[in-house]
Q: What sequence folds into this?
């Protein structure tokens, strides 16, 4: 019995054998590790005492998936502008055209280089990112697209003039539809253009959301039969009634400690989806719809 115990203890204390058969000199095995499989590579090599060992000496991670190539913003914008032109700013867009254009807008949105497009709006800062005159190249908003159905007038330039922040003026030029069917030389001699202005006051609600308060609506005649209208002619305008904050709180169902102009239930806003030095993409709150506009130096003359 005592001899058996001695032999058992000696066996337990003996170092494990590191000798391997020839077939195991080079091998690979799959090992589960932290929920994933890694490849273990081993190879026999000499150890002290003349034996060999095949302990793992290298672990190979699975190859990382190939990184998605960066999207070319210039190429996306080029496709967008071509598609918008072919669809006449969205006024002649088929459902397939709209799907193509808005897919391009969706691709551009996460690539916007300006993190806080509403910066500087409240105080009219000179370096505010939105401080430009923007001319429409596409819309899917029903309150604008239905204007093209007018049987008597065609639409000219449509703008969002934000050069005097926090005031933002929406501008729509129109001219007799008959002129669109005339040769360019003849049409220019008969140019007759009417300009509609809707003045709003912008208010930043978040880094990307701009709230709007509508203040005034006005109209002016820019040209009649190719002749500019004198500046002394009256330009009729109507100031819109402004509701008090208490009334707005009841309308938008917010508490006394909340500014109703910033309420989530207040639909007078737009979200900036993309903005750089030449392109603005926004999505309006009500009645909904997307707008894409390019920066221009000034409003068109209209004649």
A:
């Amino acid at each position: 019995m005592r001899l058996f115990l001695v032999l058992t203890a000696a066996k337990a204390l003996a170092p494990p054998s590191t000798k391997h058969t020839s077939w195991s000199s080079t091998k690979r095995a799959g090992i589960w590790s932290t929920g994933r499989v890694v490849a273990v590579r081993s190879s026999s090599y000499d150890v002290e005492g003349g034996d060999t060992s095949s302990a793992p000496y290298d672990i190979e991670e699975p190859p990382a998936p190939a990184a998605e190539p960066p999207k070319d913003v210039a190429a996306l914008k080029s496709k967008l502008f071509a598609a918008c032109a072919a669809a006449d700013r969205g006024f002649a867009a088929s459902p397939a055209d709209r799907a193509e254009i808005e897919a391009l807008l969706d691709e551009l949105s996460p690539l916007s280089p300006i993190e806080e497009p509403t910066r500087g709006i409240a105080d009219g800062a000179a370096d505010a990112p939105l401080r430009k005159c923007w001319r429409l190249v596409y819309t899917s908003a029903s309150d604008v697209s239905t204007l093209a159905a007018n049987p008597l007038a065609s639409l000219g330039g449509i703008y969002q003039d934000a050069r005097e922040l926090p005031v933002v003026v929406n501008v729509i030029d129109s001219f007799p539809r008959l002129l669109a069917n005339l040769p360019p030389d003849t049409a220019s001699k008969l140019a007759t253009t009417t300009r509609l202005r809707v003045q709003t006051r912008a208010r930043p609600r978040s880094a990307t959301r701009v709230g709007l308060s509508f203040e005034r609506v006005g109209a002016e005649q820019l040209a009649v039969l190719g002749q500019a209208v004198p500046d002394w002619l009256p330009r009729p305008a109507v100031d819109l009634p402004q509701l008090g904050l208490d009334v707005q709180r009841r309308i938008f169902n917010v508490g006394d400690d909340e500014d109703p102009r910033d309420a989530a239930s207040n639909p007078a806003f737009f979200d900036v989806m993309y903005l750089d030095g030449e392109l603005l993409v926004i999505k309006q709150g009500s009645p909904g719809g997307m707008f894409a506009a390019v920066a221009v130096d000034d409003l068109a003359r209209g004649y």
